[in-house]
């Protein structure tokens, strides 16, 4: 594998740390980094710079499998929390292209892959974000025979994966027009013809079944209208990874995890202003017919694990009560609270998303892979909360600066950036 184009010149040895490789735990090892890549994992390794890893744990840089990012400031702060890659699940294609180019040349910000424009019907979810000036108007789709053209346009725009929105408004009590299963299936077929993964937004048992029938590759959320005894097994049998985004849905439906971040000295000083704004926001009123079950969502995660489904960690940033970078650590805690072991939770934010999204150059600590690394105090393989005891972060072998504060991101209409200050559904 060719060296990273902006690799740190000097070789670095992180010595004597517990190392989670992405697959297993090495009780004590040295990791040698050269030219932005992990060169060797072993003992008694030598490098120009030596970092003391004793009593600490080295992790692969974390991957947020479901986020929405709008500025390089947000990507910079995301990296400061040890999240070295964000998989954006819907955004303005023009803005995304700029962010991707910035991430490709600046190791001081997190890397990005993006869906760009998502597939939805006219007036469907999340068109209200256009009405509110948060998203620029985007093309929609109604019939299956429009799918090849729609997908070809997305691929031309630079979409790394395809986002399909199956949202009928059940969880918020707002009736919405939604894509048919036939149109969703045609979108999946076209995405696959372009070698792209199809990721579905579905928040109910019914729309999740529709997404699976359409053949999607990944579920962008856990369903949360109710529990279902069979669905976790259908998902596991199909091998469809799920990104629960518990931290976002808990925030939007009445259990925000904002206070714990604002009161945490490991977090608060390093938040960007958009995150600080979102953490301090006011809850959103829901429709009288809103149907959601947060305890059920947590139970479903436990059932998915039991059924053997692959779980990926995603925080759904740019949602109310969700902070760039920091909230992925909360998601890990919530996954452990739902029944995953700390090692399973760490895997859900490292090797599992890398495997799922074809990011073979990251997600693990192994010779030849990118030196995207997170060094923390203590042992998150036992106590997941230690992931926020951050000592250092490297992206492509370059040590990241942990910035405090940062400008409030702005939208196309100049307002503060919150995907959901109006609507209550996570995109
Ligand atoms: Zn989202």
Describe the structure.
Strands 1, 2, 3, 4, 5, 12, 13 and 14 form an eight-stranded mixed β-sheet that branches. This protein has a three-stranded parallel β-sheet with strand order 6-7-8. It contains 14 helices and 14 strands. With about 425 residues, it is of the alpha/beta class. The protein has helices spanning about 70-80, 95-105, 130, 145-155, 180-195, 205-215, 230-240, 245-250, 260, 275-280, 295-305, 325-335, 340-350, 350-355, and strands spanning about 10-20, 25-35, 35-40, 50, 55-60, 60-65, 85-90, 110-115, 160-165, 200, 220, 375, 390-395, 400. It has one domain (about 60-360): TIM Barrel (Alpha-Beta Barrel). The structure holds zinc ion. Zinc ion binds next to loops.
Any chance you could write out the topology, listing elements then pairs?
Layout: E1 12-20, E2 25-34, E3 37-42, E4 49-52, E5 56-60, E6 62-67, H1 72-80, E7 83-88, H2 93-105, E8 111-114, H3 128-131, H4 147-157, E9 162-165, H5 181-193, E10 198-201, H6 205-214, E11 218-219, H7 231-238, H8 246-252, H9 258-262, H10 273-279, H11 294-307, H12 326-337, H13 342-348, H14 351-356, E12 373-377, E13 390-395, E14 398-399
Parallel strand pairs: 1-4, 1-5, 6-7, 7-8, 9-10, 10-11
Antiparallel strand pairs: 1-2, 2-3, 5-12, 12-13, 13-14
Helix pairs in contact: 4-5, 5-6, 7-11, 12-13
The structure holds zinc ion.
